């Protein structure tokens, strides 16, 4: 017999019977057992292919993270065989500011000429020039970043050293003020004031202290990974240190009156010196490195900006000329120049994961010291009284300020 039912022409309301497959052309009991076995096989196959239920898959590694803002030890949790380290180096400190120059001394007052019936008094001494300002320190460089994935053993210890960055150098001290010039005598003009001293240099900032963020596997001969600190802001461009502004030049002494001629000429004001040079920028941290890892990412921070140049000291005012019946007043000393502003620090490397705010940022450079004020010129002499006077001593320049410490390092461990 054939394996299918006969096909007949049917009306729209009649049922159509399709041929049965050979596997189902058996007894009802046999067909039921065949369908049941097929469903069981499908259920088993679905169970074997479900996520996490494969016979070949191992235990799933747990997930977590640990952050370090200070030195510490990380113990690898049970079941963890691979971790990723993210390390940021600290920012470099800002460079220190240079000292301001000292103000120049004022010139001494002149005296009257003898043996003249109507003598003119001596001229007043010129005021000393103000010292120039010291240069500002450069901004520190930003720290670097390194990411490294390593195979580890559960229970093993990892030593974490979070970098704190190097220290900044010492700021420069202010220059001494120049001495005032001596007053003139009957046969000599008043003397010029002395020049102010130069401002002190800013100290060189060495890479001392902890300069890198490091991660060591216990017993390893080498650091497993290291993120370097940004370099400190330094001295002048092309030099190893920041130089202070020069002291103001001296104001000239009031001239003595001449016999049979006009009275004493005014003492000239002191000339200003150029301001202190700018501080050198801090360089960014070099790319870190990873020993024996995979998926390594290295990034550098940015360089710090150059510190500002110190301002120029102002000239002192001229002394007044002597006149009949009176001596000239001394000129006022010039103001000192302002110190240069410190440079802004560089930014730390961004990393593939954003670190906390401030991590790896370079410190701002210190401000340069202000220049000292020039001394006033001495008063010119009048016949009889009052007597002429020496010039005043210039004031000492201001000291520079220290640079600001850079932002800290940071370590984030993920698994």
TrEMBL record:
Keyword vocabulary terms for this entry: Plasmid
Low complexity bias spans: 382-393
UniProt KW Ion transport keyword: no
Name the UniProt record assigns to this protein: Uncharacterized protein
Composition-biased stretches (Gly residues): 89-111, 120-129, 170-183, 235-279, 328-349, 359-381, 394-407
Superkingdom of the organism of origin: Bacteria
UniProt entry tagged with the keyword NAD: no
Residue ranges, annotated region (Disordered): 87-129, 164-185, 235-287, 328-407
């Amino acid at each position: 017999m054939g394996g299918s039912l006969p096909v007949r022409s049917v009306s729209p309301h009649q049922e159509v019977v399709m041929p049965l497959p050979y596997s189902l052309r058996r007894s009802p009991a046999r067909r039921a057992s065949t369908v049941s076995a097929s469903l069981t096989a499908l259920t088993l196959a679905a169970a074997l292919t479900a996520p996490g239920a494969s016979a070949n898959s191992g235990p799933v590694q747990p997930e977590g993270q640990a952050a370090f803002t200070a030195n510490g030890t990380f113990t690898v949790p049970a079941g963890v065989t691979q971790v990723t380290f993210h390390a940021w180096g600290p920012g470099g400190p800002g460079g220190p500011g240079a000292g301001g120059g000292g103000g120049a001394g004022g010139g001494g007052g002149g005296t009257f000429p003898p043996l003249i019936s109507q003598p003119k008094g001596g001229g007043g001494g010129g005021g000393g020039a103000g010292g120039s300002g010291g240069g500002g320190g450069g901004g520190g460089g930003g720290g670097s970043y390194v990411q490294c994935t390593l195979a580890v053993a559960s229970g093993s210890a990892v030593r974490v050293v979070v970098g704190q960055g190097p220290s900044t150098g010492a700021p420069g001290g202010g220059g001494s003020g120049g001495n005032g010039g001596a007053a003139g005598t009957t046969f000599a003009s008043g003397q010029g004031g002395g020049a102010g001293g130069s401002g002190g240099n800013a100290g060189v900032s060495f890479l001392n202290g902890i300069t890198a963020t490091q991660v060591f596997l216990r017993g390893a001969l080498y650091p497993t990974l290291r993120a370097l600190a940004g370099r400190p802001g330094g001295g002048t461009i092309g030099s190893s240190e920041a130089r202070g502004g020069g002291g103001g030049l001296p104001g000239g002494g009031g001239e003595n009156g001449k016999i049979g001629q006009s009275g004493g000429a005014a003492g000239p004001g002191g000339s200003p010196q150029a301001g202190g040079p700018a501080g050198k920028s801090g360089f960014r941290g070099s790319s870190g490195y990873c020993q024996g890892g995979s998926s390594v990412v290295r990034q550098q921070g940015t360089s710090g900006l150059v510190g500002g140049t110190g301002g120029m000291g102002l000239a002192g005012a001229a002394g007044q000329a002597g006149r009949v019946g009176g001596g000239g007043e001394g000129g006022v000393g010039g103001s000192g120049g302002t110190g240069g502003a410190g440079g802004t620090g560089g930014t730390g490397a961004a990393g593939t994961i954003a670190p906390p705010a401030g991590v790896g940022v370079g410190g701002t450079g210190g401000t340069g010291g202000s220049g000292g004020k020039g001394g006033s010129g001495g008063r010119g002499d009048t016949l009889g009284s009052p007597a002429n006077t020496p010039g005043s001593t210039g004031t000492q320049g201001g000291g520079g300020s220290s640079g600001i410490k850079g932002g800290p390092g940071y370590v984030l461990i993920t698994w």
